[in-house]
Write a structure and sequence with these properties.
The protein is of the alpha+beta class and 131 residues long. 24% of the residues lie in helices and 24% in strands. The protein is globular, with a radius of gyration of 14 Å.
Length: 131
């Protein structure tokens, strides 16, 4: 699937995002060549926080086509736009750095020695199967 198809499927499931950032690959070796970061902002009265998701990672799967993944994380509402944008860029950089090291995002995997904006004190990421 290409980026537009992935986004259409994701929006069918999760609705239209409130905000979208697009990041081009940092170098010629990176696959996928572009990622979108979708933001779904929670309401102050809702129990659910802001959801941030990648779109484009599933266009690349070095393992099997059934192992395609996108990343989604939840952040407390009330962050600044600059914080959300830094977090989105950090998520895109995490994808590209892991793929450059030959790592892929599979369920029940722990990625160690990582850094993501707003979560600087955390150095690991647990990947779970949410679907």
């Amino acid at each position: 699937m290409n980026l537009q198809q992935l986004r259409a499927v994701f929006e069918e499931w999760n609705g239209e995002p409130h905000y979208v950032l697009t990041f081009a690959r940092p170098d010629e070796q990176a696959i996928p060549d572009r990622l979108e970061i979708l933001y779904y902002f929670g309401e102050e009265v809702e129990e659910y926080p802001t959801a941030i998701a990648t779109i484009g990672l599933a266009s690349y799967s070095p393992i099997m086509t059934s192992d395609r993944a996108e990343l989604m994380l939840y952040v407390a509402i009330g962050q600044s736009q600059q914080d959300y944008e830094m977090l989105g860029k950090g998520l895109a950089n995490l994808v590209w750095s892991c793929l450059a090291l030959g790592e892929y995002f599979i369920p029940n995997q722990v990625l160690r020695d990582i850094s993501i904006p707003l979560f600087e004190r955390m150095n690991s990421l647990f990947v779970m199967d949410w679907g």
